[in-house]
Amino acid sequence: MKYLLLLYDNEDAWDVMEDSKKSEIFGAYMAYTEALRKAEAYYAGDPLVHSRDGKRVRVSGVQDGPFADGKEQLGGYYMIEADDLDEALDWAARCPCASYGYVEVRPVWNIGG
Amino acid sequence: MSDARAVAEETARASYGRLLAWLSARTRDVAAAEDALADAFRAALEHWPEKGVPDAPEAWLLTAARRKLIDRSRRARTQADSAPALVLAAEEAEAAMRADETFPDERLKLLFICAHPAIDPAIRSPLMLQTVMGLDAGRIASAFLVSPAAMSGRLVRAKRKIKAARIPFEPPPAGALHSRLAAVLEAIYTAFGAGWDDPEDAGAGDLTREAIFLARLITELAPDAAEGWGLLALMLHADARKPARRENGAYVPLAEQNIERWDREKIAAAEAALTKAWRLGDAGPYQIEAAIQSAHNAGRLSGRDTREDVAMLYKKLVELSPSIGAQVGYAAALANSANTEKALTVLDGVDLTRVEKYQSYWAVRAHVLKALGFHAEAVDAYDRAIGLTEDMPTRRFLIEKKAALKN
Asked: ipTM of this model?
């Protein structure tokens, strides 16, 4: 089954983070991605740029980011393969984001294979 | 936690488990017995820490529970089929207590039920924590990294199965005792592991305490089971080091831990339990694992080099129970006792498909490859370990090790 991991964190913290810390976290993500690949659980994954550069579109108009939904913003995603929700939760817990933000796990609705 | 609160909670737990076991054994309806006791148990946890533990804690709980039962059956809201049997069982228990008989402890039967072959192994440990220890499903769920709703559902299904399959509340037949006891111990150790893997003490950390309580219970109710003593010794030894394994949020390996922060009382209790185990003359994997922990601790406490002992004990453990964990432990012990080539051979012998998600394998492999001078391979192995790590301190520790390799 496919699962989407949505990575939420405090993106403003990134703006003021020391470079050494940034590269540590970057390295952790590289390693995590590699672990997913080696376990043949990886479909895709990317970080997102700051939500201030995001837009929200409705028929009634377009809203500029950042979006005032709270301190934590969507900052990245992974699409993974897991046998069941338990396994997906295990992968989510290993995601570096789970240590400083949170990871939302959403089963992907499989329409017509 | 204050002492009074700790004593009250411990007594409430013990009484709760005893009563639940008694009521379940007589009605075979664990869920209905839980329902009957839930409010009484909550009230006990509320009142006892302040007002003190009553002289007869089981009688207190039982009276409170029986009132609720009668109250509810009047309103016909309880599961009708089990209610009369529950009231009967409660009355029987009260009569026994009034006659000043010792209240029979049936928790061992309940533990055997929880780890019965008909029950899914993955739910055994949660089931014990809920029924024997009275832990709520939400807390169990977070410790086992399962959603609370899913955990509740699984626990309900397991209890339904106990009832529907009429799993007998009897000690296992003599021929099956060994394997059935092993299943009970495994479930207890799983609970300990769930608590141990929560180094940031996000709430599951207390499960180590619950698991130790359960292992103690086994040694009281089945004192002739050497492996029960072995498991108790193993967990006490590891738990004694718990306060020292993090400092300022950083991971501290055993060899560098501040031994002043080790719990000496727990270590002494572990040694006593292990001695009891050996005297029974029935060696098993838990006793050997306990001996390994004992050698680790003794090595630091006495300054004596016990690394060879540890490697030898691991070798025995692998022979006795060749689990992935034992093999990885053996490799780590070999590497620590200057036998690095052999450590790599052991690691190479492990089926790779079984360690795709096993962090320790990659951490040890990285360490061994680095010691042998295979730096590029070591970097890859560190990456695998880092990618599989759940907690920040360990991840940071490994990232630093990897960085040191590149420089």
From this structure: 0.84
